[in-house]
Design a protein that fits this description.
Elements (H helix, E strand, L loop, with lengths): L1 H27 L2 H14 L3 E3 L19 H11 L5 H12 L11 H8 L3 H12 L11 H12 L4 H9 L1 H5 L3 H8 L3 H12 L7 H4 L10 E6 L2 E6 L7 E3 L1 H6 L5 H34 L1 H4 L11 H8 L3 H7 L4 E4 L2 E4 L13 H13 L9 H10 L6 H10 L5 H4 L4
Parallel strand pairs: 2-5
Antiparallel strand pairs: 1-4, 2-3, 5-6
Length: about 400
């Protein structure tokens, strides 16, 4: 009797383990990946049939598709989050849309200035804001500038180091360290270290977007405001639907094992999608409830929540929630965002969007002839209980398009 029970447990375990692994993969899929999976299954699994009640809107999903333009859409989305006036935004979006596939801006500044009837200095300032976007190096006008932008994203460069990159990159690549050292007074070891750093940089930041698997920003979850209330729904209007032919499954009982595996796979898919949908809907409702102020535009940033907090609210576990928020988007009354936009980074004791707002406020209230350095801002925030490093301040300041303290200083 004991052996019989143990045997049943083992059989159950043998079925459960592959299903859990299969479910984990399904949880990671976004709407586009899921549609591709269902399409393939309908073509290869005889136990599945397409549900002809699938909505006709499937043909119109290009409203969400970035395709080749995903680099441009991403950069424009980042740029619009900066503080800019109407003219700056117009020029900034022109610059972004003029980038080549490698991510370089090759249109002469003078030509842009003439087009928008502004001084060249004005265009240069807008370009600097675009160059502060992610990935580092984007919108560079040439390869040396691309490398400078990437290195400055990590830490400020000395004028001599910048001079070497901008004017002696070819010699540096050919290891003419002594000749460069003689002109710049930099020691050979410093130049060797610089060459090593440059060897790890990318010469084409635009390719970072082409490597992305996600070419679509089709939201999995939609939050709508109706009569002052937030309604949450899954975006099923683009979903391919299917059903399982149970009669066919009955016919093959006790026959070919390979057919049995296909039948199991069809059922696993149906069950996994149902679990995925229920949890995603739960995440959407969690965001609608917890982020009401952000969705109502009464605050400029979400409060953010840990994976643990969301998992607890869904009566699920962190690993499942972590998979669910990967590569998925949510459409809200204030825009389309990656689900991870609402997640608090593990190990980070502060809300990055709140800190960006705090940085803007600190700089807004500084003395114009004695602006706060990045170290000063870090100290002010630490005094408020926000444990933050100077390099993080630099990163956020650049993302906000705010120049350094030396460039902000007003000379009377």
């Amino acid at each position: 009797m004991m052996k019989s029970k143990q045997s049943q447990k083992n059989k159950l375990k043998q079925k459960l383990i592959p299903y859990l692994a299969f479910r984990a993969k399904m949880m990671e899929m976004n709407l586009q990946n899921l549609n591709e999976f269902i399409t393939n299954m309908l073509e290869t699994n005889p136990f599945t049939e397409e549900d002809r009640t699938a909505p006709a809107e499937m043909e119109n999903w290009r409203e969400y598709i970035s395709s080749d333009e995903d680099m441009y859409e991403s950069l424009i989305h980042q740029f619009r989050m900066m503080e800019t006036d109407e003219k700056e935004r117009e020029i900034g979006e022109y610059i972004i849309n003029s980038l080549n596939k490698e991510g370089y801006f090759l249109v002469p500044i003078k030509k842009v200035a003439e087009k928008f009837k502004v001084p060249t200095k004005y265009v240069e300032n807008v370009l600097k804001k675009v160059q502060s976007l992610d990935p580092p190096g984007i919108a560079a006008r040439n390869l040396p500038e691309c490398f400078v932008l990437q290195l400055e994203n990590e830490s400020p460069l000395s004028p001599k180091i910048k001079h070497v990159i901008l004017h002696h990159l070819h010699e540096l690549a050919n290891e003419k360290f002594k000749e460069i050292s003689k002109e710049t007074k930099l020691n050979v070891e410093t130049l060797k270290t610089l060459k090593e750093k440059i060897s790890h940089l990318t010469a084409a930041p635009g390719y970072a977007f082409q490597k992305e698997k996600i070419k679509y920003t089709i939201p999995d979850i939609i939050i709508k405001e109706v009569d002052g209330k937030f309604l949450v729904e899954l975006n099923k209007k683009f979903r391919r639907n299917f059903h399982i032919n149970e009669k066919y499954i009955e016919m093959i009982k006790g026959n070919d094992n390979s057919l049995k595996e296909l039948a199991d796979r069809a059922r696993w898919t149906k069950q996994s999608i149902e679990e995925r949908d229920a949890l995603l809907l739960g995440i959407g409702k969690f965001i609608a409830e917890k982020e009401r102020d952000f969705l109502k535009k009464t605050v400029g940033f979400p409060s953010k929540h840990s994976l643990d907090e969301i998992a607890k609210g869904l009566n699920s576990n962190v690993s499942v929630v972590s998979r669910l928020v990967q590569n998925k988007y949510i459409e809200t009354p204030v825009g389309i965002f990656p689900l991870r936009f609402f997640i608090q980074h593990k190990g980070r004791g502060f809300n990055d969007e709140e800190v960006k707002t705090a940085i803007k406020e600190i700089i807004k209230g500084e003395e114009k002839n004695k602006p706060y350095s990045d170290d000063d801002i870090a100290r002010i925030l630490r005094a408020k209980g926000i444990d933050i490093k100077r390099r993080t301040i630099v990163k956020y300041r650049k993302m906000l398009g705010i120049p350094s303290s030396t460039k902000r200083k007003r000379v009377d």
